[in-house]
Specification:
The structure is a homodimer.
Chain A: H1 3-24, E1 38-42, E2 45-50, H2 52-58, E3 72-74, H3 82-96, E4 112-115, E5 125-128, H4 132-135, E6 139-149, E7 155-162, E8 173-174, E9 177-180, H5 187-199, H6 203-206, E10 210-220, E11 225-236, E12 250-257, H7 258-265, H8 272-284, H9 296-302
Parallel strand pairs in A: 1-3, 6-11
Antiparallel strand pairs in A: 1-2, 4-5, 6-7, 6-9, 7-8, 7-12, 10-11
Helix pairs in contact in A: 7-8
């Protein structure tokens, strides 16, 4: 390629990365539903955002949800404990599963996610994972960058190809292991468990993974509001180690030179939040140069959006 | 210490770090002057925030600044080029140096900073460095984490102690090298220059520094609004290398085990933005554990605040 072609390819890459970050933070953009969402409050503290179409469904359950007031929806007075709140809301959600319009609930997981104003706060209640987007409740997870360094110092990264039968993002590229943080399970513990289950990485290797970042974003689609924070770990894998398909969520694993991975980030072949996790890796490990990448700071900002 | 004492010490450390991040982002907090600031716009794009006390002074210069309109201040119509804008505003600033209330201009530096909506945009004008806080214009800089790794893997960090005659933050701890990004100077070029000038780190060593992050924040004080973005580099220094005082901005350098540096971060002994740069290093290099640090995600968010 000529140097002009190289520049044009870099510009196209940068533009696609910006598009990815904008899409994954579209809840913050002008024109999003944010202005019309109601705050979901427990004990006066905001724990989520309820889109208007959900808020109107909730008015059917006056024994659980108070009528919207001052831009907020809160729980009825008697629901004053972790257990009472969780069970009352879960009963509503089980009833709402019949609603055609709430397709997210068709993916009911029976996984309890903690609901709290901030990660450092004690949980106010738990909520079924598939329902969290209806309430814009923040979900936490772990993602692992699994990479190798050759004797000459070349970095390569292991990527998973999601199974075609996955409910979300079938067939797309993914990090080598990732998973949601369920109520009462530790962060590293979740990471080690996902390593074992998804990629058959034994605990003795997975334990060496190092926490290095969080990646945070909030997007919306017709189903609801997805506020997410991923705890990011890096794991240098032995050169002779190969991840192996574990629980069937993955069809296969491949290892690619880091510059190939970088190119793929700007395509539709990556699950979007996994592309963000890899982008964060590229920045932290100096594979992006602030003197030649004009959007360097915008990339960093886009990886760490919080309301 | 008993394990209870250890826990209490950790809690106190975490609270102090949160306080630091809140202080450095106080422009975003409820009760800040933000609601009363005027947007500073050039060609319809916002390039800063003008505090009310500055806006009222600017009304004295109707040939340069239009009267505030729709919450914004913009330049007069004829000022339609980089040079014209820069020179007209500079003339105003030179006049305003006589104002007792504008103490920041007493630290006039004769350093030209670029003014632009975003770092990726072409600059709209330049502005004298000491005046940028009057217009809430974003300033960019570089900061270097200089560290060593012993044969047994122990990480230590070199810190500078600022000269007692420095105009800002005299006598406080600082990163081993840092400096502002002047108009038309590259990021790595600035870093290498500051390494040489401040710490006598030769270019052959400084060139090995690796870009790894940005740290962004906006704070206000009685003088104005400080919106800043620091490009962060890490440099592993040879074990037998010692930084040496260069241009007199530093009184001396010391090397400390990383856990000592971590403790110091939560004290008033650190220049606040340098403490943020070290905090980012601690997170990226796994010296903070998300399972035991409840504010992990808030720390990451606080290091990357942008409007």
């Amino acid at each position: 390629m000529s140097s002009l072609d190289v520049n044009m390819a870099q510009c196209a890459w940068s533009e696609n990365i910006l598009k990815l970050l904008r899409r994954m933070n579209n809840f913050y953009l002008p024109g999003s539903s944010r202005a019309n969402c109601l705050r979901f409050e427990i004990d006066g503290a905001q724990v989520g955002w309820i889109p208007p179409h959900v808020a109107s469904l909730l008015t059917r359950y006056p024994a659980v949800f108070r009528p919207p007031h001052g831009g907020a929806v809160s729980l009825c007075e008697g629901l004053d404990s972790y257990e009472k709140r969780s069970e009352a809301v879960d009963a509503v959600l089980k009833d709402l599963r019949k609603e055609e319009s709430l397709t997210c609930l068709k993916g009911w997981r029976d996984e309890k996610y903690s609901v709290m104003p901030k990660f450092c706060d004690p949980p106010s209640m738990w909520m079924e994972r598939s329902a969290t987007c209806l309430f814009g409740v923040k979900r936490y997870g772990v993602h692992l960058n699994g990479y190798t360094v050759s004797k000459s110092g070349e970095v390569s990264m292991w990527l998973a190809r999601r199974s075609l039968t996955k409910q979300t993002y079938p067939g797309l590229l993914d990090n080598v292991a990732a998973g949601g943080l369920a109520a009462d399970v530790g962060i590293k513990q979740t990471m080690v468990k996902e390593c074992q289950e998804e990629a058959c990485i034994p605990a003795a290797i997975a334990e060496k993974a190092r926490p290095a970042a969080t990646v945070s974003y909030t997007y919306e689609d017709e189903e609801g509001v997805f506020a997410e924070c991923q705890f990011v770990f890096d794991l240098e894998l032995p050169l002779d180690f190969k991840p192996v398909v574990g629980d069937g969520e993955v069809q296969d694993f491949q290892i690619l030179p880091i510059h190939e991975v970088k190119k793929l980030l700007a395509t539709d072949d990556f699950k979007p939040n996994c592309a963000m996790v890899v982008l964060d890796f590229l920045i932290r490990h100096s594979f992006i140069d602030p003197d030649t990448e004009p959007f360097y700071q915008e990339f960093v900002a886009g990886l760490h959006q919080t309301i």
